[in-house]
Amino acid sequence: MKHSGELCFIDSSGNMDRENCRVFLLLTHSCAGGLPLGILLCQSEDEQTIAQGLEQLKQVVGEKGFAGRGHEGPQLVITDDCRAERGALRKAFPKATLLLCSFHLLQAVWRWLWSKESGVTHGDRPALFAIVKEMLYCQEIGSVDRLYSEARGHPVAASYEKFLRYLDRLYARRECWALSYRGSFLTRGNNTNNFAEAAMRVLKDKILQRTKAFNLPQLFDLLTSRPSDLKGNHVSRLEALMNQALRIRSNKMKGVLTEQAQPSRSVTGDRPQEDIASDDVSLVDNMMEEIKSRCQDPHFTAGLLAMAKQYNVLRSNPSKLLSAFHSFGKSGSLTSKRAAILRRAARRQGPMIGCQPTAVARRKSGAGSRQRLFSGRPVKQHSLSLAVVLNTSHSKKH
């Protein structure tokens, strides 16, 4: 995928397993949303550990990874302002340009203004926040320098020496976060890390069901394997990406697809196209003959009658009938082991993945627990702009 060589997103979160390990998600953008490129499971969030994980990921993807860039990695990486994470990315991908997520920058500024360290009074916080926001969204590089000079003479900012020092540190890194410096980069309109934020919340809410039901090896197995056939055999997702091949169970179908992939051989070779079509027909004929032979077995009679009745219901609707053919056998107990594991984990009694402390206070219901509400949960107000207008603190989503 060419987008993986242009731009990637990375984000981390913890509080998912019993040992409280860190989970890093590496994604790229597409027309369908964020697509995962890799997952790192680390027991700590120090720079050396993350760098080792990225080096192992480079070995897995090989030279064909990142749209053929291989070990050079993507051209651009958007992250939050984590020093260890950005340091590890510089070691693993020295040729990549690291950009700061616009939302995380503004969120960090707003939280700093609310901290005791800043010493900013309640009424002056929106005005100081507007200075940084205007520098972020200005269209010309020269405007950033002009706004910085004007900020040092601003009547409100001049009375806070700590804010001026904080602004100096931000200005020294303006190439990472100011949008006016991204004109020559292939960001394709992506200036935030929202793809990674959304993927992390899906992982906690939908996959893990807000439960700490796994240790580190179990979490690794859950995230990297899946049932692939009717026997329940698990195939590594990373192995499938490395092989870059479709997994076909029938040897006959493998041969058919191989010949179809080579037009010169399939057209001018010894085997005509009619033989390939006849093989498909014979495969269906064999299945029908086997089903007929099963009718004599009393154990299969009830099931075959139910299938025949359902066929009579769907025969007038070709689209539903085709969908039923494609989904035949895919929803059985043998192929839904992954879903069964997640259901057992949701029922298991154990520590839960807690919500953010401020999420409890925003609930309209009377539940005072930090557990996730599975039904009737009120809509969350995670708007940073609304928090600035109301002059209130802001919290995370996951």
Automatic annotation (TrEMBL):
It comes from the Eukaryota. This is MULE transposase domain-containing protein. It comes from Dissostichus mawsoni. The lineage of its organism: Eukaryota, Metazoa, Chordata, Craniata, Vertebrata.
